[in-house]
Amino acid sequence: MTEDFQDIWAFLAESPLLGLTVTLVAFLIGQALWRRLGNAPLAHPVLIATALLIPFLLLTGTDYDTYFEGAQFIHFLLGPATVALAVPLFDQLPRIRELLLPITVSVVAGSLAAALSAVWVGAALGASRETLLSLAPKSVTSPIAMGIAERLGGLPSLTAGLVLITGALGCLMAPLVFRLLRIHDEAARGLALGLSAHGFGTVQAFSSSAAAGAFAGLGLGLAGLVTAFLLPVALPWLASVGG
Amino acid sequence: MLLGLTLLLGFQLLGEVIARLFGLPLPGPVIGLALLFATLIAVGRVPTGLRTAAEGLLRYLALLLIPAGVGILLHLPRLQTDAVAIAAALVVSTGVALAVTAALFQWRWLRRGRAGRAEDDGD
Lengths: 243, 123
Known about the structure:
The structure holds two protein chains of two kinds. By secondary structure, chain A is mainly alpha-helical. Chain A folds into two domains: 5-76, no CATH class; 83-242, no CATH class. Chain A is built from 13 helices and no strands. Chain A has helices at residues 5-14, 16-36, 45-60, 64-75, 78-84, 86-91, 93-98, 100-124, 129-135, 142-152, 156-180, 186-208, 210-242. In chain A, helix 11 crosses helix 12. Chain B is mainly alpha-helical. Chain B folds into two domains: 1-64, no CATH class; 75-112. Chain B has helices at 2-21, 28-43, 48-59, 61-64, 66-70, 76-81, 83-112. Chains A and B meet through helix 2, helix 3, helix 4, helix 5 and helix 6 of A and helix 1, helix 2, helix 3, helix 4 and helix 5 of B.
């Protein structure tokens, strides 16, 4: 106990070990709380972990770059995880083949509606151009959304946060929208949840039924692909809206 | 497992190279995803090692999102400036996306085979 706490802290604050460990600890706490709260979308482990880590960094005076020195080891795996989405998508191939036309029409229309309406409303209310470009891919699963935001000239880390909020929002709004529009079909509900609320929506759909969950996974994967391919094409149009 | 992880990284690498080579406005990992999907369709099945690696990574996808999510703290001033616009954009577009997707799909699908579906499930 000869070493001063301040010296120990000075060591830890400079080492990637701290950023990595606190991220894992925050996630484990988030997971435990989420289970206890019955998998409620607002108590999603990522939201809890983020809500724990931000005050921790602010209170300890750790800047984001220092934290990221350690957290980057986790962050790096987002790339291969994005590629890995091909596997669950391939598992849905029989479904895609069977319902090719309805799935294509709904996913293309839904993905464009999600991106364009976000940019249009944001622009109408005076959001800055960078905010608009970060908003555009926010319905898509985070790894893809961040890649799109970066390519469009938005702020990937802002997009990451907006994606998480969108996920929780989609789960909260879905029952109301489905009731208003009389969407009673499990497949339609699942597809819409996966498309508009990515991983959050997929979890919620699976808790409703396996069929809804499968279509949600399909919606998540296809919306990611469709948005990544279509948004850059729609960009000139978006830019004219954003000014 | 190791072979699977190598395949995933290899497809990502290929995606990054193609994106830069052709100046595509697409994220490299998304091109890797599309290429792997096409390859799986051609091969007709998922090799066991690839499935193990892919499902292992996707099981912890939520954890992988945290470092980027925490980055929102860099944008707190921007969030305050654009708070109303961002909140309205998120709510409206999420509602629109849910409605457009679900309504189009239900309509299209039911038109093909409307064999005895309940008019309203009343939940």
